[in-house]
């Protein structure tokens, strides 16, 4: 019998209130998935998901009776979110699949823990633990796979993938996070065979999973494997032929500059240095407007590292300028942005009018010329700006004469 190690999350007051309510009068509840897996691995636990044979209405009734707020976040699939002591916990009724089409599933509630576990994706995610005693239920060899660093589908891999095609990408992500050594050959062969089914998924789901992969501490090996397996030929045909070199350079730069990984920056490293291509990818993946603009800026300006980084930052923003230099292999310049904020030109059109220039196009022209000189001189203070104004006004006067 394997028992879950002691862990801080098991003692949280809010969770204990939930467990007490759901286990009263013959009820039952178990922690499942990531909380169990990550506790066994000694990793920080972010989310504590729970499973119970109680139907959602009964879960809600019991929790509201003890003043726990309940939100019906996925009621059609038996999931509610309980908020206690500031913590959010997803609580899902045991289920079995009635019908699946690779994108969504129709489920029926069940009372059999093993049946619920059988519909999950990987053996290491189908571990259940009694939150009180810590006793672990493992029906499909998840503990052995966790010890071996093996990510494997439960049962028939092709069947698991057919239930939800996103599991193809999840396989690569979990293999990168928890795998050691060679990929499980049966599971690996199944995802490669099924790769064309990725086309049936929503673009938002693909983008979310791809960005999660790119956000891993070091995704280079798994990205290379995905490219070799033809995954990117399906979901990112714009993949640049030199992506591996660019990604190597970027991750080395992130480490040298002590910059946290960023999935969008790494996505830019997979693409050619071209704004139109970046726009195309962002549109297809249904990225947000902010993400699209950022990705396009990296595609457009990757050749601009000869320009001082603060000058580039003034033009496209601090985050974009930092990422341009990191992707292009110039991490040393990033230090110049540390603690720096975009300055504001200490000059207005009225200041120029006060010097005797009539309001109109001439004021705008002088203002623009002063700003260009101010940027070129690395944003000097107001006294120097006043000198630049006088110079530009003097030149304008000379030109008119």
Care to describe what's here?
The chain has 401 residues and is an alpha+beta fold. It has four domains: 1-148, 2-Layer Sandwich (Beta Polymerase, domain 2), CATH 3.30.460.10; 152-237, Hydrophobic Seed Protein (Orthogonal Bundle); 238-342, no CATH class; 349-400, no CATH class. The protein is built from 20 helices and nine strands. The strands form two sheets. Strands 3-4-5-2-1-8-9 form a seven-stranded mixed sheet. Strands 6-7 form a two-stranded antiparallel ribbon. β6 (95-100) and β7 (105-109) form a beta hairpin. α13 packs across α15 (289-301). The longest helix has 19 residues, at 382-400. The termini are far apart. The relative contact order is 0.06.
H and E order: HEHEHEEEEEHEEHHHHHHHHHHHHHHHH
Could you tell me the mean pLDDT?
A: 93
- Amount of helix: 40-55%
Number of helices: 20
The CATH homologous superfamily of the largest domain is termed Beta Polymerase, domain 2
**Tally of separate domains:** 4
Task: Report the CATH topology name of the largest domain.
Answer: Beta Polymerase, domain 2
Distance between the termini: 96 Å
Using DSSP, what is the number of strands? 9
CATH architecture of the largest domain: 2-Layer Sandwich
Question: What's the overall geometry?
Answer: elongated
**Strand residues, percent:** 5-15%
The largest pleated sheet is described as: 7 strands, mixed
Write down the Rg.
Answer: 28 Å
Sequence of strands across the biggest β-sheet: 3-4-5-2-1-8-9
Structural class: alpha+beta
Q: In the CATH hierarchy, what is the class of the largest domain?
A: Alpha Beta
**Poorly predicted parts:** 396-401
């Amino acid at each position: 019998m394997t028992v879950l190690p002691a862990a801080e999350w098991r003692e949280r007051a809010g969770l204990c209130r939930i467990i007490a309510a759901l286990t009263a009068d013959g009820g039952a509840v178990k922690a499942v998935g990531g909380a169990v897996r990550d506790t066994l691995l000694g990793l920080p636990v972010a989310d504590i998901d729970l499973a119970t044979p109680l139907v959602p209405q009964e879960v809600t009734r019991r929790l509201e009776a003890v003043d726990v707020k309940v939100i019906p976040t996925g009621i059609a699939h038996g999931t509610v979110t309980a908020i206690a002591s500031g913590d959010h916990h997803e609580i899902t009724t045991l289920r079995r699949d009635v019908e699946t089409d690779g994108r969504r599933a129709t489920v029926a509630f069940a009372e059999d823990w093993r049946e619920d576990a059988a519909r999950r994706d990987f053996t290491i995610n189908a571990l259940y633990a009694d939150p009180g005693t810590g006793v672990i239920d493992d029906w499909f060899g998840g503990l052995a796979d966790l010890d071996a660093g093996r990510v494997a589908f439960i049962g028939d891999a092709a069947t698991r993938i057919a239930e939800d095609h996103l599991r193809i990408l999840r396989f690569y992500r979990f293999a990168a996070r928890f795998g050691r050594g060679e990929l499980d050959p049966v599971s690996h062969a199944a995802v490669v065979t099924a790769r064309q089914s990725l086309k049936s998924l929503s673009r938002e789901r693909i983008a979310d999973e791809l960005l999660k992969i790119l956000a891993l501490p070091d995704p280079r090996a798994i990205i290379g494997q995905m490219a070799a397996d033809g995954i990117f030929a399906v979901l990112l045909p714009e993949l640049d032929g030199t992506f591996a070199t660019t990604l190597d350079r970027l991750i080395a730069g992130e480490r040298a500059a002590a910059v946290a990984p960023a999935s969008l920056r790494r996505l830019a490293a997979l693409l050619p240095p071209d704004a139109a291509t970046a726009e195309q990818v962002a549109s297809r993946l249904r990225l947000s407007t902010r993400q699209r603009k950022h990705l396009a800026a990296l595609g457009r300006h990757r050749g601009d590292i000869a320009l001082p980084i603060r000058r580039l930052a003034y033009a496209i923003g601090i985050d974009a300028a930092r990422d341009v230099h990191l992707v292009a292999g110039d991490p040393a310049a990033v230090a110049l942005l540390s603690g720096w904020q975009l300055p504001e030109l200490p000059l207005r059109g009225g200041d120029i009018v006060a010097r005797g220039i009539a309001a109109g196009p001439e004021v705008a022209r002088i203002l623009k010329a002063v700003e260009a000189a101010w940027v070129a001189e690395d944003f000097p203070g107001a006294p120097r700006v006043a000198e630049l104004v006088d110079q530009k006004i003097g030149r304008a006067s000379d030109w008119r004469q």
